[in-house]
Amino acid sequence: MKNRFAVTGFTCFGAFFISSFLKAYLCFALFGAGALISVILLLLKKNTIAVVAVTSAASFLIFGAYSSLFIEPCEKLYGETLTVTGRVKEIGNPDNDTVSLVISGETNNTPVTLSLYTTDSNISVGDKVSFEGRFTPFRNNTNFSERDYNYSKGIFLKAYPVSEIEITEEAGFNPFGFIGAYSEYLKSIVRERLEGDNGALLTAIFFGDKKGLSYDLSSSVRKSGVAHIAAVSGMHLCLIVTILVSLLSCTPLRGRNKLCFGIIAVIILALMVFFNMTASVRRSGIMLIIYYAALLFRRKTAPLNSLGLAVLLIILIEPYAVRDTGLILSLCGTYGAGVLAPALSVKFKDNAFLPIKEALMVSLCASISTLPVASLVFGGVSLLSVPTSLIIYPFFFIALIFMLILAFSGGLLAAPCLFIAGLCAKAIASICSFLGGFDYSFITFPEGIVIPIITIAALIAVPLFMELKRKRLVVASMAVSLCLAATVILIDKIITYDYAIVSVLSDGSGYALSVKTKEGVTVILSEKNEKLCKLTRDIMTEYNTDELGLLCIAKDSDSYIKAFDSIKYRELCTPAEEKTVYTVNDDYKVELENNTVTLDIRGNRFILAPSGTEGLSADFIVYSGYKKAFGNFGSDVTIFSDKRFYNIEDPIAKVINSYYEKAEMHIKLQDSQPMKGMSL
Question: Rounded to an integer, what is the distance from CA 188 to the centroid of its chain?
Answer without folding.
Answer: 25
